[in-house]
Amino acid sequence: MIIEYEWINREPFLEYNSYNVENWLLQLSAKGWLTESGKMASSGNPEAIAYRSSTAKVPLGGRRHVTGYSSGDITSVSEAFRKIEKWDRPLLIEVSGELYSPRAIPNWNNSTLQVSGELDL
Amino acid sequence: MNTRLQLLQTELDEVKQDLVSNSEYATLSGMNMLPRNWTVDPCLCSMETGIRPKENDENQVTHFLCDFKGVVKKHNIDDCRPCGCRSSTTLTLSSEIPSGEWKALSGYTDQEKQSIAEQLKNNNLVEEYMTKRAEFDFLKGVLKYIKEEDLR
């Protein structure tokens, strides 16, 4: 199984009446493929995908102007948040659950209770 | 009690040190972005006091046992979403009556008994102890969570 994590969103939301950041929306995705060849064949489109997201609220006394956050700050905060909230493991479980779940048979006929035509998996 | 408070302070300092040595905790704490349930700023929200007399064979009160039950909230960082996380601690302390002042329980008014309990509470810094105890328990919980994650 191949799994790739990617930040979908790390976006600040301001207080209604100032440029201070009230909270950050953090959203991480995990994309999964069963095999490397499958990944190449799908041009990078995942065979399974899962998300985790959270709103990190900045307490009232600690809010900064939006320009007071460097991209390095945002990266380190989001990675710290990801680690302490333990996002990777549940994402992995969810993606692997999708990839290894039972499959439907495309030509199954519920009247004859047989596969109609060729068994095409 | 003061010795107990000092020991608790030492334990509390150790937990805080362990927490800030965790890089993720330090990063989020430094940026004021700790998750809400990791924010520990304890505040005492209620204190109940019970007082029980202990008598000798002649039915004279030799000392009172006071039970203090404190409930401490984890934090009070915003009024819109009150914190539901609380810690409860019970502490029993004894107030000895000097032998020359022993008398029957009926000789004490309710006000006198309340006064004895209040004095015992203040002399032994009970509220401070309760708050620190809760802070220690809350922070220890956060630390345990981090260590569990490290074992993963």
List keywords for this structure.
heterodimer; A: alpha+beta; three-stranded antiparallel β-sheet; two-stranded antiparallel ribbon; 5 strands; elongated; B: alpha+beta; four-stranded antiparallel β-sheet; 4 helices
Overview of this protein structure:
The complex is a heterodimer of chains A (121) and B (152). Chain A has 3 helices and 5 strands; from the N terminus they run ββαβααββ. Chain A is of the alpha+beta class and 121 residues long. The longest helix of chain A has 14 residues, at 71-84. The model of chain A has no long low-confidence stretch (mean pLDDT 92). Chain B has 4 helices and 4 strands; from the N terminus they run H-H-E-E-E-E-H-H. Chain B has helices at residues 2-20, 23-30, 110-123, 126-151, and strands at 43-55, 60-73, 86-96, 103-104. In chain B, strands 1, 2, 3 and 4 form a 4-stranded antiparallel beta sheet that branches. In chain B, strand 1 (43-55) and strand 2 form a beta hairpin. In chain B, helix 1 runs parallel beside helix 4 (126-151). Chain B is elongated and about 65 Å long. Chain B starts with a helix and ends with a helix. Chains A and B meet through helix 2 of A and helix 2 and helix 4 of B.
Largest sheet of chain B: 4 strands, antiparallel
Average pLDDT over all residues of chain A: 92
Order of helices and strands of chain A: EEHEHHEE
**Spatial ordering of strands, largest sheet of chain A:** 1-2-3
The residue fraction in helices of chain A comes out at 25-40%
Question: Could you name the ranges of chain B where pLDDT drops below 50 across 5 or more consecutive residues?
Answer: none
Tally of individual helices of chain B: 4
Number of helices of chain A: 3
